[in-house]
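WARN no homologs supplied; continuing
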Amino acid sequence: MVEAHPAHEWALPWLQRIKDGTNTGLVAAHSLAELYAILTTLPVHPPIPPTVAQQLIRRNVLDAFKVVFLSDQDYAAIIDHLSNLGIVGGATYDALIVRAAIKANADRVATLNEKDFCKVYPDLADRIISP
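OK structure emitted
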């Protein structure tokens, strides 16, 4: 969505395949808030105003992806899972995304953060990709 982002060239074809129906896209509900926070604080010039971030999210994500919501049981299971692995900190948010993928029976999880995603769910490493 942002040409100045270093991963734009990698991410754009994936987004286009979802928008044209070639692939089905899923997004964890909490990722919508994360995306808004990132878009509105990216160090780009000019900065992305809140209304433009909202439009980008609506047009490129909400209109194209299925939003996957986690339940309180999902959150409890994530905390148990991370605790058992001894994982702390920000990797918790990566675990939320992977848990949403599990809940939706996703074939693959595409991420720019493959290492941390594999760390939080090592048994799913073969489904986590960073093309």
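The chain has two domains: 1-69, 71-131.
OK
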